[in-house]
Design a protein that fits this description.
Elements (H helix, E strand, L loop, with lengths): L6 H4 L21 H25 L3 H14 L4 H11 L4 H14 L4 H14 L9
Helix pairs in contact: 2-3, 2-4, 3-4, 4-5, 5-6
């Protein structure tokens, strides 16, 4: 087979530049575990964003499945625990309170996690500490 182009086409194609004789190109190596952790964290964030969208669309079973998937890969992921707590509100308040407490335990400085449980405790009339004093 002939690799030559017809003469009319050859004037439009520029020849490729000659390779430099500097040596091999060294790519920076990244710690493989750090790269996996970053990609896993990004995947978890994407799944949790999708779970939030599903929750807003009242597709609670699918949102719950996504949160549980995140928790299987990253146990005690605080945002996944918080979203699960919000999913259980009104259906199983005890389970919701457990998820809120676990989220607070993982990230005690986050006021949103504690406020979710506080709404539940306030509505029930009981006093349940979400974090250890």
């Amino acid at each position: 087979m002939n690799n030559r182009l017809p003469p009319a086409w050859s004037k439009h194609i520029k020849p490729a530049p000659a390779p430099n004789a500097k040596g091999p190109i060294v790519k920076p190596t990244m710690n493989l575990q750090k790269g996996n952790a970053q990609s896993r964290a990004q995947a978890d964030d994407a799944l949790l964003k999708q779970a939030y969208v599903l929750q807003q669309a009242k597709r609670l079973d699918e949102a719950q499945d996504l949160c549980l998937r995140v928790l299987t890969r990253t146990p005690n992921h605080p945002l996944a625990l918080y979203i699960l707590g919000t999913l259980y509100l009104g259906y199983d308040d005890e389970m919701a309170l457990r998820y809120f407490a676990r989220a607070v335990g993982e990230e005690p400085k986050n006021p949103y996690y504690e406020s979710g449980g506080a709404k539940l405790v306030h509505g029930s009339g009981g006093i349940v500490p979400l974090r250890a004093a």
